[in-house]
Amino acid sequence: MRPFAKQVIADLGLTVKGAYGAYRPNNNLINIYVHDFFNDTRAIYNIEKKRITVEDKRFRWDQFFTSLHARGGYGQDSFLNYLWAFFIAIACIGFFLWVASGLVMWWQLQQTRMWGYVALGSGMLSFVIFLMVL
Length: 134
Description:
Blueprint: H1 2-12, E1 19-23, E2 29-35, E3 40-46, E4 51-57, H2 61-68, H3 79-108, H4 113-133
Antiparallel strand pairs: 1-2, 2-3, 3-4
């Protein structure tokens, strides 16, 4: 679907500064989206009617913050998307260091080591239960 989306985007004269793609919700429609850091454009191609509708979505803060969680990493052609991916990578490294330093601190405190085992075991158990429920 991506090559088809790229061709339609070029035919429409749309500028791609971020992510783009397409999906087919049913046999009659193809939805093509062009997503920039702040703006979204959607083209809906109706195969039966051979008609395409293009709409620019207005900026909304709630959608902006939600879309920050759906970014696709470094494979997008926008400086702000690269910058966001960099900050996420730094945050992930920070979380790993936080967990590792917590384990080191727990291991060094012998008087509370048993409670650490309880916390570690219950955390692992809750993670396994979470995976089983999914």
